[in-house]
Structures are given as C-alpha cells and as structure tokens.
Amino acid sequence: MESISGRSNGGRPTSGSPEGRTFSRRWVLGAGAGALLGTGLTACGSDDGPGGGGGGTLTAFVYGDDAVKVQQAAVERFNSSAAAKSADGRVKLEKVPGSDYSAKLRTAMGSPSAPDIFFNWGGGSIKAYQEAKQLVDLTDTIEGDPVLKDGFLPAVLAAGGLGDRRYGIPMRGMQPVILFYNKSVFAEHKLRPPTTWAELQDVNATLKAAKITPFALGGADTWTELMWLEYLVDRVGGPQVFARIQGGDASGWGDPAVLKAAETVRELVDDGAFGSKFSSVSYVNGGAPAVFAKGKAAMHLMGSWEYSTQLGKFPSFAKNNLGWCAFPTVEGGTGDIRNVVGNPTNYWSVNARTKNKDAAIAFLKDCASETYAKALVANGDIPTTSNAAKLLDASPNPEFARFQYEMVEKAPAFTLSWDQALGADVATPMLTEINKLFVGKSSPAEFVAALKELK
C-alpha cells in the first residue's frame, strides 16, 4: 500500500531532486491496525524476543535517509560509554530504506526478530503497536528521570504519546507548519504579515487586485490542503477539538469548529485565494514551491521543510525574500495564535519484549544530550531539546532556526498532523473527503457528515 500522503522521510527534507526532498514526507502505518494485527502483532507473547538474553546487542530500526548519520554517531557514542557497560548492552543500528520502512517494521514486530528500539512518528503511527501491548510505557520512566523529563520541550513529548501516556523519546528535528510569505511582494504592495483573519482577507484583496494569487497550494497532493483545516479548526475551536477525535470519538467531527473551518476553506477557494488551477499543481514535483518563489503567489502554508526546499531550488529567494510568521487568529475563535500544528518530531520507542530495558533507556537518554543536539543543528535540524536555544547560532539560518524553536517552545499545544495522528483506516478516507471539499465535490455540511461516519 502506498503512503496516503507521500511525506515520510523521517522528519526532514533530503537533498537532491524535488521528489527526494518531499516524496514520502509522511508515513502511514500500512493498512491500519486491523491489518497489522492480522500480520502477526499478536505474536508478541513469544518466548523468542528481541535483545537476546539479559544483555548483549539491542537492535534499533531507523529510517535510512541522509539524517541517519546523527543516530549512527549516537550509537557509536553509546556503545563505548560507561552507561552501555553498566547496562550490559550494546546497540546495533539497522538502517531501513524509507520506501520499505513501514512494511519491514510491521513484519518484524510480529516476528522473533523484532527490533528492541524503533523509529516512528508517534500518535497514530504507533497506535496499533500500543493496542497489541508491544510498547514499553515510558511515562513513569520519563517522570522519574530528570534527564528525560527536563530534557525536551513539553509540547513535543506530549505530542508523541497516546492519551496521557508517553511511548516515545524525541530523536530528530521539529517540523511545525508555518505561514511563509514573499517579502519582496509584500514590500512592493506595502503589506504586513497578517495576524488576524480580517487582516488576511485585506491582504488577499490587495493581492488579487494586483493579479497575484494570495496562496500557493499544491492541491494535487491532498496533505497540503489538510494543513489549512488543521490550523483553522485549532484557531476556531482550540486543540481540544481534534484531541477528542484523536481519542476515538468520531462524533467530534460534528463540533461547530470543524464546520466553520470547512466553510472558511470554501470561502477561500471560491474567493480565488488559491487561484483557479491549484488542484493540478503538485508540491512533490516542485510546482507549488516554484509558484511561490517566482512571485506568482505571495504566501505558502507549509511545513518548516519549505526553507530547505527553497534553498535547494531557489537559493536566492530563500536567502533574501523568504519570510515566515504564525498562522493568524480567527475572530470569535478560542484557539491561541501560539498553538502549532505539524510534525513535532520523530521518536524512539521501545519494544515491550526487549530483554534489556535498562540498556534501551540508557541509549534513549543520549537524545537529551547537548552533543546529540549539536549534531542535529549541524545537520540543519532544529532540536526539540530544552537546551537547544543556545546552539542555534550554528544553524545554516540562525534567524529561521530561532523562530521555529521559539514557536514550538512557547506553544501551549502542538497538534500532530491529522493523517499521522489517526490510523490509516481513518486517515485515508479523511484525506479523500478533504480533497472533495477543496475541489467543490462536497459542501461543508456534506464534508462534516462524511467525517462523522469514519470510525
């Protein structure tokens, strides 16, 4: 089964072609929990478990992209440390190609060769494993260990869990969704980044009068449309609206905030905010970034990897004219402008069958270290560690790095992207309904009714 959204490269765009930077930007857990259980997750009671004996070598599955060098260095550092000797364990990193990661993890977790530790996206991506009792609940471990409890931004730790329980330790950079704008276009038309919906509508009117499309949108890739609903629902009703849905209450789709967000989307589309051809423009092939960089569109709502994408394709634009700001508030809404949506980060989780939990936890603690955070910064990532702020001057773009870090640090809530927070059995039809809303094949009311039927 293909990824429902095509964005799962482990948390950051990679170099190379546009496809290389954005294809598999997100990950989906195969065909959902039912299929996972059908492929052998219930085999977790076997006596043959990971880790081999009381000590020895622990296997860690990791998404095998360009960023894996940070995790490789961490493994080498741990294996030569006193902590490894004390816990009588070493870690072996198994790099799994991105296109094969979800399938290989799914198969391995139902076999005697399951990994002790594995890379994931938190939320819905681990729900089936949690339901099959294959995960170590790290909540009490984190609360009782100052290194883990105080080592990461609270919003990021929370976003990787399920309910009020923690099953993951942050291990890569943050990826919030940001409203980017073309500073040259804004200066030419004497515009300021909007902080309220009324201001955004005024900006749109000025741009349309100048025959400039307000927003680039790669509507051929539905996940780009999803970002608009994620922020609008948050700004109208607050993060608790989607939290209810993520918790399994499908009636939450009937919250007035969801209908209001859908109505607002239709108003934007009908008003020409995305132009008339957005549904045939792709992000994956570089179409939407090009429209934005060339000034044909003035703004672009996109994940923080947009900076890397623009730097690779349009370096002059990225360095001189790319601006960024928070998504505006919506009049009458209850959502805080500091709330963030997107991909908080990637996580390490521990297999409940590991025979050396102490060594696994000792290895995870390295992710909170300054050495680990420095390696992420050098790789162009923004760490989610609480000590990262002082390290960001070494980033390729310190100003953008600080903006991202402070955005997440100050966020009262960081909502995981809906198609990652929900299982694929819900996320796949949800994306279909979102696309129908954007292209006018369903009304806002029909959109809400369809989502309420998703279980």
Automatic annotation (TrEMBL):
Comp. bias (Polar residues): 1-17
Annotated Pfam families: SBP_bac_1 (PF01547)
Entry-linked InterPro entries: Bact_solute-bd_prot1 (IPR050490), SBP (IPR006059)
Region ranges (Disordered): 1-22
PANTHER family membership: ARABINOSE-BINDING PROTEIN-RELATED, BLR3389 PROTEIN
UniProt protein name: Sugar-binding protein
Source organism of this protein record: Streptomyces fructofermentans
